[in-house]
Automatic annotation (TrEMBL):
Keywords: ATP-binding, Nucleotide-binding. Pfam families: ABC_tran (PF00005). This is Cell division ATP-binding protein FtsE. Coiled coil: none annotated. SMART domains: AAA (SM00382). It comes from Psychroserpens burtonensis. One of its GO terms (cellular component) is plasma membrane.
Length: 227
């Protein structure tokens, strides 16, 4: 029996008063890796924002890691986000803190108190993204690819049930994109569930997986032809 991590039924997504996506039906199970593709402005970011509570769901049924997106209260959102790992295109690292302090900040903000456990958790996630030796550096001392690895490590801190990666390779050159993708695939192979929005079709060809496409206010599964 596969475990459902995300389920949307007859969902419409709005940005203000304008409908971005309609009649969305989608399900993700534990361990899945799914791409979300579509042109700029096709609704990928709105789709993602709805899943982590940045846009309110007002039409249809939506469940993400045991939270009902329709009935969720404002003060539930931080708890939902603790069960999610979110990776953004622009890293969002705090520039005035070292990598270790960036990660420590997140753990403390989410209720971790034991210094030894905090240190062990930081080491563990940096190990997962092959960045164990970089903890003492500041973000500006790292390359874009390294910063994105740190952002992925940060997303893993609270052992999320679902990772939402919104254009994680959008600011990276092709070679670095592949390196970051390899990290995401490794994490997925270790059991993490990942939904990744991207417009990098080269990655889809190199690492084929289930693909959803946003187009003309709809979301549908793209069947990839076997070469």
């Amino acid at each position: 029996m596969s475990e459902t991590v995300l389920q949307l039924k007859n969902v419409s997504i709005y940005q203000g008063d304008s409908m971005v996506l309609s009649d969305v039906n989608f399900e993700m199970n534990k361990g899945d890796f799914v791409y979300l593709i579509g042109k700029t402005g096709s609704g990928k970011s709105s789709f993602m924002k709805t899943l982590y509570g940045d846009l309110q769901l007002t039409e249809g049924e939506g469940h993400v890691v045991d939270y009902n997106l329709r009935t969720m209260k404002e003060n539930d959102i931080p708890f939902l986000r603790r069960k999610l790992g979110i990776v953004f295109q622009d890293f969002k690292l705090l520039p005035d803190r070292t990598i270790n302090n960036n990660l420590e900040f997140v753990l403390k903000a989410t209720g971790w108190k034991d210094k030894t456990k905090i240190k062990e958790r930081i080491e563990a996630v940096l190990g997962k993204v092959a960045m164990k030796t970089k903890g003492f550096k500041f973000p500006h001392e790292l390359s874009g690819g390294e910063q994105q690895r740190i952002a992925i490590a940060r997303a893993l801190l609270n052992d999320p049930e679902l990772i939402l990666a919104d254009e994680p390779t959008g600011n990276l050159d092709p070679q670095t994109s592949i390196e970051v993708m390899e990290v995401l695939r490794d994490i997925n192979n270790n059991g993490n569930t990942i939904l990744m929005a991207t417009h990098d079709y080269a990655l889809l060809l190199k690492y084929p997986s289930k693909t959803l496409k946003c187009d003309e206010n709809k979301v549908f599964e793209v069947v990839q032809r076997k070469s």
